[in-house]
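Protocol step 6 of 9: fold each sequence in the batch and record its C-alpha cells directly after the sequence line. For illustration, a two-sequence batch is reproduced in full.

Sequence one:
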Amino acid sequence: MDREMYKDQTGFSWHDPVWLQQNPLTEDTCISYFHGSIFYDNDKDLVYKATKINPNADDQGFRVTKSVKEYNNTLKCVSMYFIIDGIIFQAASLRAVLEERLERASFCLKNAIQSILKNGNHSLKEKVPWGGENQDDDVDYDFLFEESKPKRVEKILTSALNELDDL
C-alpha cells in the first residue's frame, strides 16, 4: 500500500468556495466535497465515511474518516479529517498530540530543575512551614537538609536535566 495515505498533512487546509456556493454541505454531500480536496486518495482499498460532529446542531461540522480495507474485510482508520464551515483539515494523530504534550512537560520540568539548581537547596528549608524541624510525623526533615544531601540532590537533578536534554 502506498505510504502517501499515511502522510502527515496537519499543516494544510483546503476549501472550495465555488463548490460551496453551488451545493449545500450536508452529511450526504460531504464525501463529494472531500473528493475534490488535496486530502482525497483514489485508492480502491480506501473507504471514506462522513458523520456530523454534533448531530443535534445545525452547524456545518463534519468528521471524515479514511479507512483501509484489511485482508479480512475489516476497516482500519488511517487518518481523520474535519470539515468546519467548508474548510477541510487533517486531525492530529494521537502520537503527535502526546509528543507535543511530553515536549511541553519536559520543558517545564527542565525549567524547574534549572531553577532549583540555580537557587540552591537552602531555599527549600526556609520555605518549609515548620522550619525544617522534625514534627510529630515519621519523616525526618532535618535529614533531607543535611550538608551532604544538597550535593547529592544537585547531582541527581543535573543527571535528570541531562536525561531530559537527550529526549
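Sequence two, same batch, same settings:
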Amino acid sequence: MDSVGLPVLTELVIDVPSVTSNSFEDATKQSSSWILTRLHAGYFRINLSFCGQTLLWKTFGESDFYNSLIIRPKLPSAVFVLLWSVSLIMLSLISLLYILRCFFHFNMVKAEFLHHVGVNYLFVPWISWLLLLQSSPFMSPKSVQYVVVFWLFVIPVALLNVKIYGQWFTKGKRFLSAVANPASQLSVIANLVAARAAAKMGWMESAIFFFSIGITHYVVIFVTLYQRPIGIYRLPAKLRPVFFLFIAAPSTASVAWDSVSGSFGTPSKILFYLSFFHFASLVIKLPVILET
C-alpha cells in the first residue's frame, strides 16, 4: 500500500507547485500589464505636487525670516530631507514604470503624444525632475553633476517645445485656437522652471532664453483661452481642476524672474498679483469649475 500511495503523493507534491507557479506568473503578467496600460503621463502630477512642496520647504529654510529666528527649530530641515527623499523615490518609481510603458505599450504613449491635451502632460516629469534638482540638498548649482543633470532634463523640454509650438505655426487641425486648453500652460511652466534652474547656476543667457520662450507663449495661450469662441472643445469634468494652472503659470514666472534679475522687483510683483487675482477668481467660480 505504501508503494502505491507514495507515487500518488509525489505526483501531487510536484504538480501543485507547478500549477501554482504558472498561475502566479500569469497573474503577475496580467497585473503588470494592467498597471502599465493605465499609467499615463497624468500620474506625474503626484510627483509635481511633492517636488513643488520640497522646493517650498527648502526656500523656507533659506529665507531671511527663518534665519532671523533666535531659536531655529530643527523641524523644517528634517521635514525637508524627508520630503525630498520621498519625492525622489516616488518620482523614480513612476518614471521607471513609464519607461516600461514606452517599451511595452509604445502605441499608447504615441497616442498621448498626438493628443492635444495628453501631450502637455509629457512636460510634467521633466518639471518634477527640475524642481527636485533645484531643491537637492546634495548638489550645489555650481557643481558639474548639477550641470549634467540639468541638461539631461532640459533637452526633452526643448524638444517638446519644438513639437508643441512648431505645430501652432502650421495649418491644419493643430491651430492653437482649436487645441488650446488650460493644460497647455504646462509647457509654459516647464520653460519657466528651466529658466530658474539656469539662473541658479549663473547661466543668465540660458535663463533669459527659457524665460522669454515661456513668458511669450504664456501671453499667447492666456489671450487665446480668454477669447475662445463658443462651441470649441471643452475639458471633461475630470480635467477641470487643471484650471488652477492659471495660478501656477504667473506665480512660477514671478519666482523665475526673481532668480534671473536677482531681486523681487516690479515685474515679479506684477506676475505675483496676477496669480493672486486668478486664485481669487477661481475660488469664486470653484462650484462651476468642478461641476459634473
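Proceed to step 7 once all outputs are recorded. Observation for sequence two: The two ends are 72 Å apart (CA to CA).
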